[in-house]
Amino acid sequence: MLCDTLEKNHYNLYANVSEEEFQAEREKIARQTAKMTDEEFYWSVCHLVSLIGDAHTMVGNTGEPFMTALLWSIKKFDDGWYILKLDQRNEQYLGMRVTAINDLPIDEAVERTRQVISYETDSWFWNLVPQTLAWRGALEYLEIVKDQLLPIDDKTLDFQKWNQIVMIGSGQIGSSHDFRKKQEVTQKQQISSEQNPSKT
Questions:
Q1: CA separation (Å) from 137 to 61, 66, 79, 126?
Q2: What pTM value is reported for the model?
Q3: Is the distance from CB of 61 to CB of 51 less than 8 angstroms?
């Protein structure tokens, strides 16, 4: 039904993907659906829809009961990906730079998320990466983790402490400043993006 609706209503469904490739992926999912969990099916459909290459055509996620959320969030800065949110048990890792997830370099892990994210520009892609990596099912579908997910701790994530300079306007924040300064940067960027949506 989803594909029929897309074919009927999308203004240019095959602008970025050939009909043959799209239909082949559709048939692949149909063949495997009976063996999939709800979460596997969800991410498979995300991959199918991402092939369209349209940021306005995506699979919604309202926190379905079968979805398992991980209590962490990262954000991309010029010098890498940093942890901005984490559960209290692992709060000592807040503000640290993530270099790998389960021995997979963070850049490669991020690159894999392109398989399930609907986007047109890199800025929008970077915005959606953190919420994608916050779902256990996504990590498993993208084979970033396998079998049972390990706890989000130092055995799963390889951290490198932040020790570089972050530029804010004409000023600088050195490594001696605490994590709250890093959060201020994020908040200012978010406010700026909301006030100037055309620049995002």
A1: 12, 9, 28, 19
A2: 0.71
A3: no
Q: How far out from the chain centre does Cα 87 lie? A: 18
| Placement of tokens 């919604």 in the chain | 60
pLDDT of residue 107: 92
Q: Which 8-state DSSP code applies to residue 85?
A: E
- In this predicted model, what pLDDT tens digit does every residue of 169-178 receive, in sequence order? 222 223 333 4
What burial class does residue 161 get, using C-beta atoms within 10 Å of its C-beta: 0-12 exposed, 13-18 middle, 19+ buried?
exposed
The letter for the amino acid at 53 is G
Q: For residues 152 and 146, what is the distance between their CA atoms, to the nearest angstrom? A: 14
Angle, nearest 10°, between helix axes 19-32 and 38-50?
A: 180
One-letter amino acid for residue 8 of the chain: K
What values do phi and psi take at 118, rounded to 5?
-90, 115
Backbone φ and ψ of 55, nearest 5°:
-65, -20
